[in-house]
Hints:
mainly alpha; two-stranded parallel sheet; globular
Amino acid sequence: MKLPIVRFARDNSGFGKVLRERIEEYFSKTGKTKSGGFQMYLKTTLMLSLYFVPWALFTFAGVEGTWFWVAEVAMGFGLAGIGLNVMHDGNHNAYSKKSWVNKMMGRTVDLVGGNAEMWMIQHNVLHHTFTNIDGLDEDIDPASVLRFNPNKPLYKIHRFQHIYAWFLYSLMTIFWMLPKDWMSLARYHKKDLIKTTGRTTKGLLFHMASTKAVYFTYSLVLPLIFSGLSWYVVVLGWMVMHGVAGFLMAIIFQPAHVMEHNSFPQVGEDGLNLDSTRLEHQLQSSANFGVNNKLLSYLCGGLNFQIEHHLFPNICHVHYKALSEIVKTTAEEFGLPYRADMTFKDALRLHTKTLKNLGRVAPSSSII
């Protein structure tokens, strides 16, 4: 099963060339490297500590009662922080100039129950290459209970998705830890996408089984043995931790793309011919928010600068704020959209409105 062909337009305007030259000029003049440097190592230490220190406290130090639940919530923030800040840049080869460091940091997703190869196929290969393109970008193609783009069938239950979506968002990493990676492995094997990782399906199967066994051993089995807590408290705590992490990650990723002003092209039987170039398409299908909120930018790994991330995924997120000024100026010069005027609150509000509108009947739609 091969992916349909998507053809982007040629860069006749010169936008891409000018933008790349200006970005290169920025790094040349400032003397900065495109990687993260010391501040990334410091942030990594913080996020890993936020995850593993609370785990050690209730597993081996007898923390219980209210403090147990505080520890689980803290772990949720730590898990989200690892996903948004550490493994994300590592798997984009943006964390460091050294490939082995990038690989090690990308593997932190395996450490917390996921799988780097499955993530890179879905995110690097499909989402970044075919952003918001129906049938190719799996980020806008969740279970049918959610309708993220206008090309999908409309069901009666979607009328309430702007309400129940937030609960489903909190289940994101639980679904990820349990069936998702296995389902993805089977699906990507059929689509012949495993080869993009340089691994074999059998090799990945064994690797995933091993790393997930390690994950569930330390996250559930060890607390059950050593914490002295009841089994249902440990399991419920694990679910709370993932609920916090899933919700936090979803409210960063979803407002970046599932917005009513973004583009959602649809692939036909003969593929898709776009009028926009690859870089122009990223401007049309992505949005920034909360760009002046320094705390938000720090905690979410700069992913509130989603436009800059999609234009230059191999540049560390610590540079996005500075690059955004260059991208904005260049986009405006070429008459291209640059959506970056929303606060975080505005983005969540518009995302909610978008979900609500996608759950309603459009003039040419019919409810199934």
